């Protein structure tokens, strides 16, 4: 089993932590890029939530609780 397969299994088993991690990763990218790719980052976050769970309970879908840049 590859490392990616193991990560995918871990993500699917813990939706709340997954949602928080997705939000944190998106915030990190937005911070590093100055929010230049915010729309694309939000789109990827939504797709990851759909695929791995996490819903919007992890801290905000569509960048609701993110500071504007």
TrEMBL record:
Pfam families for the chain: MT0933_antitox
Biased composition (Gly residues): 52-61
InterPro entries: Antitoxin_Rv0909/MT0933
Ranges where the record places region Disordered: 1-69
Amino acid composition bias (Basic and acidic residues), ranges on this chain: 1-30
Protein name according to UniProt: Antitoxin
């Amino acid at each position: 089993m590859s490392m990616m397969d193991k990560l995918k299994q871990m993500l699917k088993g813990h939706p709340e932590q997954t949602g928080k991690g997705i939000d944190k990763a998106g915030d990190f990218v937005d911070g590093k890029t100055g929010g230049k790719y915010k729309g694309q980052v939000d789109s990827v976050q939504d797709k990851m939530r759909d695929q791995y769970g996490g819903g919007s309970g992890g801290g905000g879908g569509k960048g609701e609780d993110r500071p504007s840049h």
